[in-house]
Design brief:
Blueprint: E1 3-7, E2 10-13, E3 18-25, E4 33-39, E5 46-51, E6 58-60, E7 68-73, E8 78-83, E9 92-99, E10 117-118, E11 122-127
Parallel strand pairs: 2-11
Antiparallel strand pairs: 1-3, 3-8, 4-5, 4-9, 5-6, 7-8, 9-10, 9-11
Length: 128
């Protein structure tokens, strides 16, 4: 059974940091591109960042560029999202997702439709 499990969410003050992890079981994560998405209350889900299967290509939403860093450890079947300089507008449930698709353009991974598997999400709350 394929499972993606996010962890590391919590409550942090503005300017603080959190480190989210996405651990995969039942699949070899190195064969998948991985994306992080988030959904705030009353808002639609939005793309945050994507990393390709090898870790050689990343694509960040403008809202998090320079503050968030995605990385992956294929040996451990995990992907990590380091979030620094957090702002109240970063408050949301964060989801990781895995895509088996192979696109030449990173922007193709900004759509949630291309992902095959999703985690249950982890809550991130940034207090002002």
């Amino acid at each position: 059974q394929v499972q993606l499990a996010e962890s590391g969410g919590g409550v942090v003050q503005t300017g603080g940091s959190l480190r989210l992890s996405c651990a995969a079981s039942g699949l070899t994560l190195s064969r998948y591109a991985v994306g992080w998405f988030r959904q705030a209350p009353g808002k639609e889900r939005e793309f945050v960042v994507h990393i390709n299967w090898s870790g050689g290509t990343t694509d960040y939403a403008d809202s998090v560029k320079g503050r968030f860093t995605i990385s992956r450890d294929n040996a451990k079947n995990t992907v990590t999202l380091q979030m620094n300089s957090l702002k109240p507008e970063d408050t949301a449930v964060y989801y990781c997702a895995a895509s088996a698709a192979r696109f030449s353009s990173s922007s193709s991974y900004r759509s949630g439709d291309v992902y095959n598997y999703w985690g249950q999400g982890t809550q991130v709350t940034v207090s002002s």
